[in-house]
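Progress narrative, Year 2. Work on Thiol:disulfide interchange protein DsbD from Neolewinella maritima advanced from sequence curation to structure prediction during this period.
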Amino acid sequence: MLKFILLLLLTTATLSAQGIQFFEGSWAEALEQAAAEDKLIFVDAYAEWCGPCKMMSARVFPDQEVGEYFNANFISVKYDMEKSESEEFRQWHSASAYPTLLFINAENEVVHRLIGARQTKQLLRDAASALARTEKDLDELRADYEADNTAETAYAYVRALLRAEEAHLRVANDYLRRPEVDFTAPATLRLLLLSATEADSRLFDLLLEHREAVAALEGGEAVDAQLQRAVRNTFDKGLEYRSEDLLATAVEKLALINREEAKRLESEGEFALALRGNDYKDFVKASKSYLKHGAAGDAGRLRGAFTEIKGSSFKEYKEATDLAAEALSAAAELSPEEGWRDYYQLARYLQERMRNEQALEAAERSLAGLTNGPANYRRAVQALVDELRAATK
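Result:
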């Protein structure tokens, strides 16, 4: 049972640092921002003592998928409903239980209210439901756009296409190619930020060209996040089609933003293609390069490399096991507080491959890292250490 609990912790621990970016202005400013961007406001109404509220703040709001969805579709704020920070908000809205999660329009009207904590997938479904209550259907939005041909109607239509996971590039490109388009207008800049979703596109180049103006309007973090998402989308497309040209484009475009990260991405691309190939020597070479250059110093990337290598078609080779172990050991060394988890997982991995002496060393390091850890975790790790000591006698 202890083994199961510990393995569950290892597989469910989140590594994502990207999440919801909460607006820090006043309630009046949040309403103004929502009106300017034609978005709903998401409100986390919480109390400091509330356990479920703390769970959402620690596990749900930092989730990358949640962050990407909410940052694109909502102005997000959070208020402690028992402190002065929420005084202005409480003039209009209340909460009878915590957390209360509200979706409010720019007219200060509640569109959707949720009581109680939500896990990641449930919160995403609830958010989509809130949007559906206010969104016109695609046919109406297309008719609006064709009738008015303004940046505002183009933005609304493109946003709806993206939410519906429909093709949006043609609409955005057609509008932004018009000679009369004003690239100083806020609606045009927001349309450009919204629609530049792939690095191998004219829209991406336009966003780079007008980067400062968009950043002044929407913030530098929002622009950088969209540019990086676009690069990743092109990179992932390149992997899907095994296209070296698309991968090279992704690297080249990222280099215009961050040269160091572009080098990492190039190494990641070589590693990913080698994983999908059949050449063992190429796999070893690319893996070594990625661990040295692409993933070095980044615990999340190193853990990802471990997972990829141990699940690859080369997993039964001795050198593949060495590379996987190297990756997870390096991740553990970079994580003083959580590295024991990596060492425990590494010990189990090595034990499965009958490398009991190496597994014992990893298990002992895991135990050493749990000096002040919970008793049940320590018992689980100690049991593994005892098992491996017996196996190595």
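The CA atoms of residues 42 and 76 lie 5 Å apart. Residues 1-17 have pLDDT under 50 and may be disordered.
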